[in-house]
Amino acid sequence: MKIIALLFSLVVGSSTLYAQKTTGFKFIDHIDKNQIDVFYNDKLLTAYCYGDSIMKPVLFPVNTVAGISVTRGFPLAPRTGERVDHPHHIGLWLNYESVNGLDFWNNSTAIPYKDKPRYGRVVHQKVITAETKGNNKATLVVAAVWKDHANKTLLTEITTYSFEVSKNDFIIDRITGLTAAVPEVLFKDVKDGFLALRVARELEHPSTEPETYIDKNGGYTAMPTVNTEGVSGEYISSEGLKGNAVWGTRGTWVSLRGKFKQHPVSVTILDHPKNPGYPTYWHARGYGLFAANPLGQSVFSNGKEQLNLRLMKDESVIFRYRIIVRSGEDISQEEISKMARSFAR
Q1: Coil, helix or strand for 160?
Q2: Is the pTM here over 0.85, yes or no?
Q3: Among the four residues 214, 290, 299, 326, which has the most C-beta atoms within 10 Å?
Q4: Where are the alpha helices (DSSP H) in the chain?
């Protein structure tokens, strides 16, 4: 094991190289960009991005071991043919629509300044640990705070990202601990949250609905007729549901699979039995939002259930999720169920 952040500080231009390796995992800290790249065998798998303009830390992009990006590029790195909706949907992230009445989920640079007091943001504080474990595993531990518009801290956050490569799988475990910094924090039951991924165009469900897309010149074009060539995504849940039927239902896991130029690609999210609201509800949309929301029970159950998670000052809650990104071969439901049982242990 090598504790990268403590043992290595080789400065290359404006970047701090945490590890000097040509095989296995490597972290490169671009201080000027507020970004830590995560490489495997010198190929970018993801990056921890925490610029002020995106209002929360995210992993972006998220790539397969083969180099296929499963995340949408817009708004950070737009690609031709992508939708330009929901500018707050960036990479892989975790936040929520109603925390003491503040909307952390929908905040972005598109929000007018006069409306900003209704929104919150998650602010990166520091890297606690960055380390590799052999060639195929690495861990990044970071601290952040959830703040209101007046810069008051509502929650402190410690998140551990555990990265692993196993054959064709890039596996991300995100374990996030949230601690109340004020007398009470209420996560009111709402629709928008919690752990989320905005996927690439190829993994969307085929749809012919009119939408605005990025054209070949980089501009925005409203298209009344949509080209769905290469769009092949389909959700499958642990409960046997498929497609749009997955939205608003509970399940221990959901897998989104499709093809990139005939190459099978899938993204699977596993819930954990110790998470509040387990098994989670899935806020999984055909247009590319893939989210697990265990906190919106009243919305998804039409009022039959209610959670309204509360934390008193200094009280903490932990959320655990595993994301499996695969390319090159299909992933079976039996295999996912086995992975879910392993994660639960």
Answers
A1: strand
A2: yes
A3: 290
A4: 4-7, 297-300, 333-344
Q: Which residues contact 74 (CB under 8 A, 6 or more apart)?
A: 82, 83, 84, 87, 214
What is the C-alpha to C-alpha distance for residues 152 and 148, in angstroms, rounded to an integer? 5
* Residue whose entry in the numeric block shows the structure tokens 């849940």: 237
In 148-262 the beta strands, taken as DSSP E runs, fall at: 153-166, 169-180, 184-187, 193-198, 211-214, 220-223, 234-237, 253-260
Does residue 75 have a cis bond before it (omega within 30 degrees)? yes
Q: How many CB atoms lie within 10 A of CB 217?
A: 7
Name 262's Cβ contacts closer than 8 Å, sequence gap at least 6: none
Residues whose CB falls within 8 Å of the CB of residue 151, separated by 6 or more in sequence, listed in order: none
Two tokens, residue 223: 């298209």
The candidate with the shortest Cα–Cα distance to 256, out of 239, 243, 240, 273, is 243
Strands 234-237 and 289-293: unpaired
Unique residue bearing structure tokens 């671009």: 30
Structure tokens at 235: 């959700």
pLDDT tens for each residue of 216-258: 677 777 766 566 888 999 999 999 999 999 999 999 999 999 9
Side chain identity, residue 145: V
Q: Which residue has the tokens 């259930």?
A: 305
For 319, counting Cβ atoms within 10 Å of its Cβ (0-12 exposed, 13-18 middle, 19+ buried), the class is buried
Contact 107, 120 (CB under 8 A): yes
Structure tokens at 77: 């790195």
